[in-house]
Amino acid sequence: MQLLFEYQELWIVVSEGIVGPVDAATTRKDLKARFFINQSLDPTMQRQLELLQMKKTEKVADYFSWTLALVNQMKSNVKLGNNSKVLVMGKGKISISLKDGSKNTISNVLFVLSLHQNLLSIGQLSEKGYDMRIYKRVCTINDEQKGLIAKVNMSPNRLFPMHIKSDTLPCFSFVIGDGSWLWHMRFGHVNFRSLKLLSSRKMVSELPVIDPPDRVCEACVMGKKHKDPFPTKKTCRVSRSLELMHSDLCSVETLSNGGYRYFITFIDDFRRKAWVYFLQ
């Protein structure tokens, strides 16, 4: 896996978690790299969510740990506790799984490239109606209907790390239960009769027994719609010179030595002879 990322020039993002200068081209490349890394290494790169009081009342996340569904792509700055500013690339939402098995969504999440930890605002939790209490190095979060939903011990650096599991968005992954359909797509929507022939003759390693399905592939039907063929020859041909002429007028940015900026061309369709005249 490391060799793959080194070949794509993306390994520095994995090993150091940093990006280069924030210009348009670099930002687009980093977004693509982080999305690719997140989908490939998500189980091995889980990070912690730090619960603390921030001056900005939004949650802040990076693209490594969680799958962030961007709702609004915008650029702004957010001010941290040490008065430093970090660039915000967008706002979205994150789907999480609670310990009781239920699902929940953290909304208004700011996407920040340069952060190494995911941060959660106490102020916004309070605005959402949650009751938070800190007593004897323990932070508890209570919901009016569900009761206690989180209990976090304070870390040595006086933060409250919460271990929360992020769900993969349905639009990023899907599972095809039927192996025949899976191999049909892997082979570029080849017909099932050919797939069955490959399987019966054992021409492809690890290709299972293919059972042609009863329904048709919608993508194949849409891709094989009737199309009129291109004409094999011209519908009409000229029979003598100067019967049909092709002409075009062009300009150049730099004047010629003779002071000409334009030139016009004439092409005889019958003899294919061309004339070029320069114009001022």
Automatic annotation (TrEMBL):
Domain of life, per lineage: Eukaryota
GO MF terms held by the record: peptidase activity
SUPFAM superfamilies: Ribonuclease H-like
The UniProt record lists the keyword Endoplasmic reticulum: no
Transmembrane segments: none
Keyword field: Hydrolase, Protease
Domain (Retrovirus-related Pol polyprotein from transposon TNT 1-94-like beta-barrel) ranges: 73-130
Domain (GAG-pre-integrase): residue spans on this chain: 177-224
GO biological process, one term: proteolysis
Name recorded for this polypeptide: Uncharacterized protein
Lineage of source species: Eukaryota, Viridiplantae, Streptophyta, Embryophyta, Tracheophyta
